[in-house]
């Protein structure tokens, strides 16, 4: 059973999410929070697998709540849900440690799929959001060339995997590109994240572009 905490300052929105989620046999809503402080408190007390997090909430916003929640030991994955299609929210959410970002105008099916992806320990960005991440970090002067210190812990194969991750490749696509089995790719991805101190694939994408691992295309 996937345990989900819903954090949104609008009661009707929380109720709508609960109705959608509780229609699924493998999802349980373990709590509702109406502000950032409640979200942090309930996350600590209910220990959900996934938190659905609104951005604009009272007391402190969803971005600060996300930072506090993911900083906890074995903290849950956070899926940012917002009506605001703005790059500043997107990148702030990723930097705060969110594992996924969806707009509220998506379908119930997309929401359920996203929750299941995060509950498996993967990360999720909608394709259009991945493109925006890549576009932002490939603007002239946007990347910071790495001194190689952190990257030096990677093997050549792990470096190849990181490059493909930065392009948004799935495990199956990485396996095909490198002529490896998907189980082997999954192991490589886990090692890349562990060695670089990254939470998930989303952070790996941001890290790769911030550190100039991938050369921007003209």
UniProtKB/TrEMBL annotation:
It comes from the Bacteria. CDD domains: LuxR_C_like, REC_NarL-like. Residues 3-119 form the Response regulatory domain. The modification 4-aspartylphosphate is found at residue 54. This is DNA-binding response regulator. PROSITE patterns: HTH_LUXR_1, HTH_LUXR_2, RESPONSE_REGULATORY. SMART domains: HTH_LUXR, REC. One of its GO terms (biological process) is phosphorelay signal transduction system. Transmembrane segments: none annotated. One of its GO terms (molecular function) is DNA binding. It comes from Phytohabitans rumicis. Keywords: DNA-binding, Phosphoprotein, Transcription, Transcription regulation. It holds the Pfam family GerE. Residues 147-212 form the HTH luxR-type domain.
């Amino acid at each position: 059973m996937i345990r989900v905490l819903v954090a949104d300052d609008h009661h009707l929105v929380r109720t709508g999410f609960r109705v959608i989620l509780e229609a699924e046999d493998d999802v349980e809503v373990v709590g509702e929070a109406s502000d950032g402080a409640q979200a942090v408190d309930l996350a600590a007390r209910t220990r959900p697998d996934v938190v659905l997090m609104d951005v604009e909430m009272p007391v402190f916003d969803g971005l600060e709540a996300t930072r506090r929640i993911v900083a906890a030991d074995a903290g849950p994955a956070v899926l940012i849900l917002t009506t605001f299609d703005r790059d500043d929210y997107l990148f702030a959410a990723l930097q705060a440690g969110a594992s996924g970002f969806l707009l509220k105008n998506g379908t119930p099916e997309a929401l359920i799929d996203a929750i299941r992806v995060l509950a498996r320990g993967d990360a999720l960005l909608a394709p259009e959001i991945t493109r925006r991440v890549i576009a932002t970090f490939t603007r002239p002067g946007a990347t910071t060339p790495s001194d190689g210190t952190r990257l030096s812990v990677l093997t050549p194969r792990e470096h190849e995997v990181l490059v493909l991750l930065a392009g948004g490749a799935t495990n199956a696509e990485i396996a095909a590109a490198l002529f490896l089995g998907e189980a082997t790719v999954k192991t490589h991805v886990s090692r890349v994240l562990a060695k670089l101190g990254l939470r998930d694939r989303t952070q790996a994408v941001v890290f790769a572009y911030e550190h100039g691992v991938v050369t921007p295309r003209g």
